[in-house]
């Protein structure tokens, strides 16, 4: 007997168990570092296409890019592996793209070829400005219906006038009549604690206008996790049209990590033709607090770059007008020509990180601003956006050695993040090149440890300290008393920067408070802390649930009177006009000691040959929902097999055998113990029928039901009209059922067990 079950995850609200209807002919997400196997470049620009580690088109890294250099004027095609279009009259081609435009207008299009040399255009579009979006087009060319058809995305124009064009998530598929796709769940990756609304985006991928659709999700509020009532949305969504909607319920969320699933259950009052794109889930963090965001500016430039002059001038004006509203590091690059003589390995690392290929280029909080300066509007927007992490540091200089101490703090559970420390010289003159400039600002000298940053793993309210002493004599530094230190926290995959700050210059580090705690004091909560391990703060700022309750207190405690619900207190040490990072305490800080309850009343039923189900046997498991559970983990025969956000799980198997199921709860503070086991015997209908004998047949007064193993079961008796006549529980090897009061005729005895159901026809005379 095979020991493996083929599982199908099935949330209560999911339809993913059904077979795919539409034909997906090609789907490329560029996960590798090389051009996909079988893809070629046709026409001009054979060296302009590449796979780069970026996500400018809107998908996940990596993505396809065409670069301006070496320049050409004409058509360049990236040709995909051929697909079989026998009996296919048309297909949909969809992709994401982003144009970084230099000047002028440019065309991209989709074309097909059945011989690899004659190309038939199926769609084209002219673009003349920087920006991106999604393309979904129904393609019908003379190549339709043929066995081997090549598709290409082509660029047409003078390549020198673009900077780059990015493409991702290319898919070719046949169009269904009724097909609504859930494109995204539009909740930010991090939100502040409290009431949160969740929006989502859908796209009509079918040929029929969508007039209504219904979705199901779960309530992810802290005290309850269960299915919400179905929500129906009225709309008028034409083919390929995209629209955003907001859930009709909102969630009051405490700090932690949450996962919300959304599933489209019907479209225009019926089942969608393609259910495979109807559902997804989104994991996001809820922050315990916010900090003032200081936008991080990264600027790639060169003293040999003529266009850099105007951008440097504009950036100097911007920073002069916004003191205290930015952090800045400028990378001297190695192009054009010989490049800036102050370029170093850390600059090269950051060039590769951002996939830069020209100067000038600016980034604001990790977001590409193009080959221009950061605008006042963009800086203001970022400065006004709350941050969910904070950073403080200080440095001093002893001879040729710089000493840096930096604290990086997070208000959410942070993992896979890097802390970056760059030592810059405020003004340099020794790197004069060929562009006419005589002085340069915020020039990178060294990154600590290097340009790859420092791994950072933080739980809510934690901080991590980095301390470095570095001999600057190995760098291009001109004046040791002219240094600055930039600090920032960044996701190395998405490139999102969570916050930044210049380190305080030539001073002692602003150490945070110690032993910050919250305890119950009758109906009140007492917040206490100890003075920092070093330094002499002038006072302390206390913030409770996002509101400042003490601006500058010398006390080492604060009382929250008549506290209700969850309280989060932050304490910041003040050093005149300088501050430390905050520390947190919470009224729920002991949650980790409270075990997550295991599910109870686990049961499982087996059905055979269920219409619309992909496997011979369908096993349906249910259990009582657990308060505070965010999800559940299902185990089979002691091995983890799947997870669900509801108290229902469906598994499929083509094999018979004995299977033991257990379920655990997953709460904010971890996984519970496993439930009491539930064991089922997956057997064939024939084997199950042989374990029961019903006689006599025909019968007059009594029908006897015998079983070889005495298994508990239920007998439901139905007449020929489908009406339930009687229901009897069986708990012994033989049970008598009195049929003397039955009207003569045919009856169906349905024996229902945890291992499946058996139905037998009995004649009563």
Features:
about 775 residues, mainly beta, Immunoglobulin-like, Jelly Rolls, 6 domains, six-stranded mixed beta sheet, 4 helices, 58 strands, about 5% helix, disordered N terminus
Task: Summarize the structure in short.
By secondary structure, the protein is mainly β. The protein has 4 helices and 58 strands.
Characterization of this structure:
The chain has 765 residues and is mainly beta. 5% of the residues lie in helices and 50% in strands. It contains four helices and 58 strands. Strands 2, 4, 5, 7, 10 and 12 form a six-stranded antiparallel β-sheet that branches. Strands 14, 17, 18, 19, 22 and 23 form a six-stranded mixed β-sheet that branches. A five-stranded antiparallel β-sheet has the order 3-6-11-8-9, with no helix packed on it. A hairpin with a 2-residue loop joins strand 38 (539-544) and strand 39 (547-553). The chain is flat, with a radius of gyration of 33 Å. 41% of the residues are buried.
- Low-confidence stretches at least 5 residues in length (pLDDT < 50)? 1-21, 589-593
In total, the number of strands is: 58
Instruction: Profile the largest sheet.
Output: 6 strands, antiparallel
- Under the CATH scheme, which architecture of the largest domain would be assigned? Sandwich
From the N-terminal CA to the C-terminal CA, the straight-line distance is 44 Å
The CATH H-level superfamily of the largest domain is: Immunoglobulins
CATH topology category name of the largest domain? Immunoglobulin-like
Q: Briefly, what CATH class of the largest domain?
A: Mainly Beta
Number of helices: 4
Instruction: Provide the domain count.
Output: 6
The percentage helix is: under 10%
Class from secondary-structure proportions: mainly beta
User: What's the average pLDDT?
Assistant: 88
Computed over alpha carbons, the radius of gyration is: 33 Å
Give the overall shape: flat
- Proportion of β residues? over 45%
């Amino acid at each position: 007997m095979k020991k493996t079950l083929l599982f199908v995850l099935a949330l209560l609200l999911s339809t993913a168990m059904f077979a795919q209807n539409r034909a997906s002919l090609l789907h490329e997400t560029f996960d590798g570092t090389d051009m996909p196997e079988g893809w070629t470049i046709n026409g001009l620009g054979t060296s302009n296409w590449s796979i780069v580690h970026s996500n400018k088109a809107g998908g996940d890294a990596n993505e396809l890019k065409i670069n301006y250099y070496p320049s050409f004027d004409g058509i360049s095609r990236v040709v995909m592996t051929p697909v079989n279009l026998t009996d296919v009259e048309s297909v949909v081609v969809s992709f994401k793209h982003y144009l970084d435009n230099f000047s002028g207008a440019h065309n991209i299009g989709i074309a097909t070829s059945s011989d690899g040399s004659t190309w038939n255009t199926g769609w084209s579009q002219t673009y003349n400005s920087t920006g991106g979006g999604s393309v979904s087009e129904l393609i019908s060319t003379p190549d339709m219906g043929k066995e081997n058809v090549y598709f290409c995305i082509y660029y047409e124009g003078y390549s020198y006038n673009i900077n780059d064009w990015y493409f991702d998530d290319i898919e070719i598929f046949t169009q269904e009549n009724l097909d609504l796709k859930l494109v995204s769940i539009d909740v930010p990756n991090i939100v502040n604690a409290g009431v949160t609304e969740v929006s989502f985006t859908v796209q009509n991928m079918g040929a029929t206008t969508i007039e209504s659709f219904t979705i199901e999700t779960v309530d992810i509020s802290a005290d309850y996790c269960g299915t919400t009532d179905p929500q129906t949305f009225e709309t008028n969504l034409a083919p390929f049209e995209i629209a955003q909607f907001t859930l009709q319920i909102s969630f009051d969320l405490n700090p932690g990590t949450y996962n919300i699933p959304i599933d489209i259950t019907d479209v225009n009052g019926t089942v969608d033709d393609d259910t495979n794109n109807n559902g997804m889930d989104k994991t996001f963090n809820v922050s315990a607090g916010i900090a003032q965001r200081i936008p991080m500016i990264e600027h790639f430039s060169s003293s040999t770059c003529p266009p850099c002059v105007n951008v440097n001038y504009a950036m100097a004006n911007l920073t002069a007008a916004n003191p205290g509203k930015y952090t800045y590091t400028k990378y001297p690059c190695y192009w054009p020509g010989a490049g800036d003589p102050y370029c170093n390995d850390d600059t090269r690392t950051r060039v590769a990180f951002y996939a830069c290929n020209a100067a000038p280029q600016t980034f604001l909080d990790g977001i590409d601003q193009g080959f221009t300066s950061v605008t006042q509007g963009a800086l203001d927007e970022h400065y006004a956006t709350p941050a969910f992490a904070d950073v403080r540091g200080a440095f001093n200089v002893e001879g040729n050695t710089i000493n840096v101490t930096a604290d990086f703090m997070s208000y959410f559970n942070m993992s896979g993040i890097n802390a970056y420390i760059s030592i810059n010289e405020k003004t340099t003159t020794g790197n004069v090149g060929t562009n006419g400039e005589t002085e340069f600002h915020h020039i990178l000298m060294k990154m600590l440890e290097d340009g790859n940053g420092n791994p950072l793993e933080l739980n809510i309210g934690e901080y991590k300290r980095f301390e470095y002493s570095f001999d600057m004599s190995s760098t291009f530094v001109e004046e040791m008393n002219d240094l600055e230190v930039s600090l920032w926290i960044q996701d190395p995959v998405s490139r999102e920067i969570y916050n930044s700050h210049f380190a305080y210059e030539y001073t002692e580090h602003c150490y945070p408070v110690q032993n910050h705690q919250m305890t119950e004091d009758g109906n009140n909560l007492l917040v206490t802390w100890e003075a920092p391990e070093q330094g002499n703060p002038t006072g302390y700022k206390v913030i409770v649930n996002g509101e400042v309750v003490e601006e500058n207190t010398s006390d080492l405690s604060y009382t929250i009177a008549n506290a209700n619900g969850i309280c989060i207190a932050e304490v910041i040490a003040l050093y005149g006009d300088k501050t430390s990072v905050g520390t947190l305490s919470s009224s729920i800080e002991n949650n980790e000691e409270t075990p997550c309850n295991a599910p109870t009343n686990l049961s499982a039923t087996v059905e055979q040959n269920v219409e619309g189900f992909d496997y011979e046997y369908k096993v349906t498991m249910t259990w009582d929902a657990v308060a505070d559970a965010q999800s559940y983990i299902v185990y089979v025969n002691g091995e983890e097999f799947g997870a669900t956000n509801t108290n229902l799980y469906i598994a499929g198997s083509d094999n018979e055998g004995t299977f033991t199921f257990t379920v655990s709860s997953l709460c904010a503070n971890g996984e519970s113990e496993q439930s009491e086991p539930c064991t089922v015997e997956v057997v064939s209908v024939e084997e199950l029928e042989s374990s029961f004998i019903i006689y006599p047949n025909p019968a007059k007064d009594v029908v006897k039901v015998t079983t070889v193993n005495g298994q508990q079961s239920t007998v439901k008796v139905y007449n020929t009209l489908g009406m339930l006549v009687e229901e009897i529980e069986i708990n012994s090897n033989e049970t008598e059922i009195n049929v003397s009061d039955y009207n003569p005729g045919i009856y169906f005895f349905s024996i229902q067990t945890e291992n499946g159901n058996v139905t037998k026809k009995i004649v009563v005379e």
